[in-house]
TrEMBL record:
It comes from the Bacteria. This is Putative peptidoglycan-binding domain-containing protein. Residues 47-104 form the Peptidoglycan binding-like domain. Pfam families: Peptidase_M15_3, PG_binding_1. Residues 118-233 form the Peptidase M15A C-terminal domain.
Length: 246
């Protein structure tokens, strides 16, 4: 989350009777963030690791059926996702990521770069191991994959009216996955899937339909075998959506 220095300075200025001037500083000087600070305005045509970090944050703001590539290249899909993110949070939707957009992201992220409403502890239960070990990818990759899923869920949560989404399963090691009866090709073993339980505030079908425009290519819900008590969302390269009862 954003450091509170700016707030303290503003209060101090008010106490001293001064005028609070909202200075438009370049991002990075105005809004140092504990997680990640962007140091330039990003717009279509640019590329770099800072673009990729932006793409992770807006991956849940795609059109229905779209899956945003984290390629570090600010193309039309990234521009459209940034516009939807901006509209979703009441900002001017110009598709350019500048101070206002970065400040909103800083408000939405914790020091470990996960979004404020989700945390690794909700995703790495792993049958009690509480880590990302033993899957089909390295623990570091699984953790990073899970972070992207969290940002997609943060977008889904906001679009469904800022109501809590309860995660009942995230990453699972190969042995954990088989012990709970998961598919032998389950995305849970890659940190690319999450299950949203019945104690979530939105209904199962609201979560199922909402996930289509949150970048998920695998969405399974009520009526699909084994999915009457949760909605499964995941990232993969081909689409498979099924919830016959929705
Ligand atoms: Zn699942």
């Amino acid at each position: 989350m954003r450091k509170r220095i700016g707030y303290v300075l503003a209060v101090l200025a008010l106490l001293l009777g001064g005028t609070v001037v909202t200075t438009v500083m370049s991002p990075g000087t105005a809004s140092a963030d504990e997680c990640y600070t962007w140091s330039r305005v990003l717009k279509p045509g640019m590329s770099g690791s800072d673009v990729r970090e932006l793409q992770i944050r807006v991956a849940g703001w795609v059109a229905s059926g779209e899956n945003l590539a984290l390629d570090g290249s600010y193309g039309p899909a990234t521009e459209a996702a940034v516009k939807r993110f901006q509209s979703g949070y009441g900002l001017a939707a110009d598709g350019v990521a500048g101070t206002n957009t970065f400040n909103k992201i800083y408000q939405l992220q914790d020091a470990d770069c996960t979004p404020i409403h989700f945390d690794h502890s909700e995703f790495n239960y792993n049958c009690g191991a509480r880590n990302y070990n033993g899957g089909k990818v390295t623990a570091a990759t699984a953790r990073e994959n899970m972070r992207r899923v969290m940002w997609q869920l943060e977008a889904l949560r906001h679009k469904l009216g800022d109501r809590p989404l309860v995660v009942t399963s995230g990453f699972r090691s190969v042995s954990c996955n088989s012990s709970v009866g998961g598919s032998s090709t389950s995305l849970h073993m890659y940190g690319q899937a999450a299950d949203l339980g019945l104690s979530s505030s939105p209904t199962q079908c609201q979560m199922f339909h909402g996930s289509k425009s949150a970048g998920f290519e695998e969405i399974l819900g009520p009526g699909y075998p084994g999915h009457n008590d949760h909605v499964h969302v995941g990232n993969k390269s081909s689409r498979f959506w099924s919830a016959p009862n929705c």
